[in-house]
Write a structure and sequence with these properties.
Length: 169
């Protein structure tokens, strides 16, 4: 009996350790994806304020709506699993870097469009990684469901970049 008890205890410890490792991977995705989502909303708000072209403002409006909805869904999943989501305070350094990048461009519209191409390429990469390597079924399902919208955003961003003489391809 003591051997059976030790075997059960060992099995439980191994499974808990493995679950912790899986949770860590999904936690990293949730934190990164939520940070990128918040950044998209904030960049969209900035584009609404500073942009001059109607197509840039329309794209920014779509970013605010779509990423706010995705952020809310991800937060609900994260809260249920005790995973950490990023908040606005954590993004201040990234925002400062983006603002500096935007200042160096010929126009805000051009800079915003270029930034959106790069941002969506990076976001798609982490979503594809979560889909192929993620362990939590619900987090993975969120990534799978959200990816087509992100790819659509990327195509719109590329069109926007071309329309505003951007250099993002």
């Amino acid at each position: 009996m003591p051997n059976a008890l030790r075997t059960c205890a060992l099995t439980l410890l191994v499974s808990l350790a493995a679950q912790g490792a899986f949770a860590a991977q999904d936690d990293a995705f949730v934190e990164d994806a939520s940070a990128k989502g918040v950044a998209e909303v904030e960049a969209g708000k900035l584009a609404q304020e500073k942009g001059s072209a109607a197509d840039v403002k329309a794209f920014a409006d779509m970013m605010i709506k779509d990423h706010t909805a995705a952020n809310a869904k991800l937060k609900t999943i994260a809260d249920a699993k005790n995973l950490k989501v990023s908040d606005s305070a954590e993004l201040m350094d990234k925002a400062k870097a983006m603002i500096l990048e935007l200042r160096g461009a010929k126009s805000f519209d051009q800079a915003y469009a270029n930034n959106q191409v790069k941002a969506h390429e990076a976001t798609i990469e982490i979503f594809e990684k979560e889909i192929s390597e993620g362990k939590d079924a619900e987090v993975k399902a969120f990534a799978t469901e959200t990816l087509p919208k992100l790819k659509s955003h990327l195509e719109h961003a590329k069109t926007l970049s071309e329309a505003h003489a951007g250099d993002a391809k």
